Amino acid sequence: MIEQKSSNAYVKDLLLNNSVVILFVVLCVGSFFVSGTTLNYLLPELFIRISRNTFMVLSLLIPVVAGLGLNFGIVVGAVAAQIAVFWVVYWGFSGFTGILLCILICTPLAVLFGYGVGALFNRMKGSEMIGGLVMGYFFDGLYQLLFLYIIGGIIPVSNPTMIIAGGIGVKNTIDLMGNLKYSLDNVPMIAILDVVFWIVIILTSIQLIYRLIKKQELRLKKALLVLSLAVIIYALSYVPALSSFLSTDRLLLLNAIELGVLATCIYNIFRIIRRRKEYETTGLPKKELLYIAVALAAYAITYIPVFESAFVAVRLPVLTYICIGGLCVFMSWFLNTRLGQNMSTVGQSRTVATSSGINVDRTRIIAMIMSTVLASYGQLISLQNIGTFSTYGAHTQVGQFAIAALLVGGASVHRATTKQAVLGVILFHTLFILSPLAGKALFGNAQIGEYFRVFVAYGVIAMALALHAWRSKK
């Protein structure tokens, strides 16, 4: 009887804690069938949005961990990116060089803005989310002053394609075609492989030199193994078939699944071989075998015609997804570092953190700086993918939509993970794609679906804040 009660309580807590995720899964599935659309339409649209917005959503994780709540202040990061984009386009830079220059300009701006926001939040502990929302409007006012009057009015600027006819103020829309559009998305895989190869060579050489200077063990065997693998992979890129494949800048989702399945199987087989003596006493390697089985099941799905045609229709911008994956790996690594653990401690209890010798204010400022810088990079990724720059509107709802996507994935005001961020982006944008189609099918008016998805964005935020208040009171 006791076991039955405990299992019922577990199920109840599971449903309550994941109520938002379950609701959105139901809405997405229902909208898909009501709209009458196909996977061939949904998946390409969805993966474009995933590449465009995931980096921005991931920038919210660090403030949540550090106890700053949902960072409505990421608007300042978006503003830093947009200032950089304007000047880079005005100076005539384009392509990957242009995006690197944008990074060089927006990074110090984002650090400065993030420091200011962090210092402000330290003076209003407990009200960071409200402060971030109001501060976003304040920064928007300063931004509009810069772009409507200072540029052209005080700073002499002459470019008829970007400046209003009177010579003062920037036009409402800046076209990024021919300069920054797809500057990340269009980087070919062969160029990425070349850069990674030389990075591996340089880092391995630096490590060996450092160990030699410090008179430490060189670990030549491990270094030679890494260098050999890098050289072999680099040499394979000269094989005509592989060279032709790597010369493209997009990767079919079907090929990505195949490569993922192959990598998963090889990695887990290697783990089984490496730990075979341990498994002689513990039994079968259940975890590794489960991963292999899931990977093979995913590969089997690609042979189902309806999925195969949809997977072939999706073309992934490789470098953009590498950036997203790299940020996910960085987050996992960073939260296990000393600074990351300090942020977690501050987020759980500022009193305990202070008694442990952690500088709470400094830690919170660092968290805000990191979030603002990452948000500026996320806005760069978004703008180069969209291809047009809405001068006065591109940043206005960045915070609300990113926060809504994070909450949809099951995150809360005090807890968020990379898995929740990615899941939230998928569910949130799936509903964003399908709701106008479902509205048209149900009511004969696609605009109803447009209103619904905006309502959902703000409704999810309101519900999350209400639940947070209720749980805190309880």
Q: Would you write up a description of this structure?
A:
The chain is mainly α and 474 residues long. It has one domain (15-186, 314-473): ABC transporter involved in vitamin B12 uptake, BtuC. The protein has helices at 2-17, 19-35, 39-58, 61-65, 75-91, 95-122, 128-153, 189-213, 220-236, 240-246, 253-274, 276-282, 286-301, 305-313, 318-334, 338-348, 350-355, 360-386, 398-408, 418-443, 446-473, and strands spanning 173-175, 250-252, 315-317, 388-390.
Properties at a glance:
single chain, 474 residues, mainly alpha, ABC transporter involved in vitamin B12 uptake, BtuC, two-stranded antiparallel ribbon, 21 helices, 4 strands, 3% strand, globular
Helices, strands, pairings?
Layout (H helix, E strand, L loop, with lengths): L1 H16 L1 H17 L3 H20 L2 H5 L9 H17 L3 H28 L5 H26 L19 E3 L13 H25 L6 H17 L3 H7 L3 E3 H22 L1 H7 L3 H16 L3 H9 L1 E3 H17 L3 H11 L1 H6 L4 H27 L1 E3 L7 H11 L9 H26 L2 H28 L1
Antiparallel strand pairs: 1-4, 2-3
Helix pairs in contact: 2-20, 3-14, 3-15, 3-18, 3-19, 3-20, 5-6, 5-18, 6-18, 8-9, 11-13, 16-18, 19-20, 19-21, 20-21
Q: What fraction of the residues are assigned to beta strands by DSSP?
A: under 5%
Coarse structural class: mainly alpha
**What's the CATH class, please?**
Mainly Alpha
Mean pLDDT: 85
Low-confidence stretches: none
The CATH topology label is ABC transporter involved in vitamin B12 uptake, BtuC
Question: Share of helix among residues?
Answer: over 70%
Terminal CA distance = 27 Å
**Could you say how many structural domains there are in total?**
1
Largest sheet report: 2 strands, antiparallel
The dominant shape is: globular
Q: What is the architecture at the second tier of CATH?
A: Orthogonal Bundle
The number of helical segments is 21
Q: Helix and strand string, N-terminal first?
A: HHHHHHHEHHHEHHHHEHHHHEHHH
Using the CA coordinates, give the radius of gyration: 25 Å
Count of DSSP strands:
4
